[in-house]
Automatic annotation (TrEMBL):
Family: To bacterial alkanal monooxygenase alpha and beta chains.
An example Gene Ontology CC term for this record: cytosol
Molecular-function GO terms, alphabetical: oxidoreductase activity, acting on paired donors, with incorporation or reduction of molecular oxygen
Organism: Pontibacter arcticus
Protein name per the record: Luciferase-like monooxygenase
Entry-linked PANTHER family: LUCIFERASE-LIKE MONOOXYGENASE
Residue ranges occupied by any Luciferase-like domain in the UniProt entry: 25-302
NCBIfam families documented for this protein: oxido_grp_1
Length: 345
């Protein structure tokens, strides 16, 4: 397909919810906001709603990812709900197979299982999470195939079975921010999602590696690529730029290693960061689309032409819940979205 044929209207649209904890609010407030956003997203025609596993981060409440997926799925009807992702080195593959087999049994045809190989936290917390500290991210390919085997149709005589899980064939995705996951996804014939919302440097190379290494599988005949980006949309460029300061402050906290809840927007970032910090934040947020509906439309159109991805997944760092909803509503109007019908890749 030529780049001229790639349009927003022909691209699927989804949400990555980091379940932000707002300054002065609680995790319970975050969960209520996530349910409300998911219900609106379903009505507005978003394809899927993913939650990401993070640990020991004051501003993110999605540590018990499988539980939250069930909570969101239980409060919606058709939109696909899944993980973006489960950090597999933190878990035994059998446990994840049982959890997602249970989710798929409760909400058939609506569950996605995105897998990452990073810990989703700092080294000390990663050690606290793991039962066997001899485990390594280098075991990731074997753990993925082991997990797939537990979700596959029953094998006669199998000594270890995921119940529920066996035979559910929950769609497995690989996630990444480098070429490693891209190549593995291609070799295994799995859909691939790239974390360009915080690690943009390798996006184009990773997509190239994925497409060139792709081998058709029983579940996917052609490459299917998703790029996750940040979007802050508002009625005017000026309003969007102010709302985006919450996102900038969150990434400034990452650079400084300071754990804080999401902060309310400010009129200007001047005086809050130095030149080096500003440069680093903007580098991490290269694929952030901030502005009015028209501004975001033009920039996103150029992005999908450039990358030729099948799907855009959007994270939003907006503090005010009503403004966050409005941003996602404006975004949905740029795509030919229809009420979700549990669409798979």
């Amino acid at each position: 397909m030529s780049k001229d044929n790639i349009t927003l209207s022909g691209t699927k649209l989804s949400i990555l919810d980091l379940v932000p904890v707002l300054d002065g609010k609680t995790a319970a407030d975050s969960f209520k906001n996530s349910v409300d956003l998911a219900q609106h997203a379903e009505k507005w025609g978003y394809t899927r709603y993913w939650l990401a596993e993070h640990h020991n981060i004051a501003g993110i409440a999605s540590s018990a990812t499988s539980l939250l997926i069930g909570h969101i799925a239980g409060h919606t009807s058709t939109i696909r709900v899944g993980s973006g992702g489960i950090m597999l080195p933190n878990h035994a593959p059998l446990v994840i197979a049982e959890q997602f087999g249970t989710l798929e049994t409760l909400y058939p045809g609506r569950i996605d299982l995105g897998l990452g190989r990073a810990p989703g936290t700092d080294q000390g917390t990663a050690m606290a999470l793991r039962r066997d500290l001899r485990g390594s991210v280098e075991d990731f390919p074997q753990n993925v195939t082991e997990l797939q085997s537990y979700l596959a149709p029953a094998t006669p005589g199998a000594r270890v079975r995921a119940i529920p899980g066996e035979g559910t064939q929950v769609p497995v995705w690989l996630l990444g921010s480098s070429t490693y996951g891209a190549q593995l996804a291609g070799i295994l014939g799995l859909p691939y999602a790239f974390a360009s919302h915080f690690a943009p440097a390798a996006l184009h190379h990773a997509l190239k590696v994925y497409r060139e290494s792709f081998r058709p599988s029983d579940t996917l005949k052609e490459p299917y690529a998703v790029a996750c980006v940040n979007v802050v949309a508002a009625d005017t460029d000026e309003e969007a730029n102010k709302l985006a300061t919450t996102l900038y402050m969150s990434f400034l906290n990452v650079i400084r290693g300071t754990g804080k809840p999401a902060q309310p927007p400010v009129e200007s970032m001047e005086g809050l960061w130095d030149a080096s910090e500003k440069y680093n934040v903007y580098q991490m947020l290269r694929y952030s689309f901030v502005g009015s509906r028209k501004t975001v439309q033009d920039e996103l159109q150029a992005f999908v032409e450039e990358t030729q991805v099948n799907e855009i997944m959007v994270a939003s760092g907006i503090y005010d819940h009503a403004a966050r909803l409005h941003s996602y509503k404006l975004l949905s109007e740029l795509f030919e979205t229809q009420p979700a019908q549990a669409v798979q890749a």
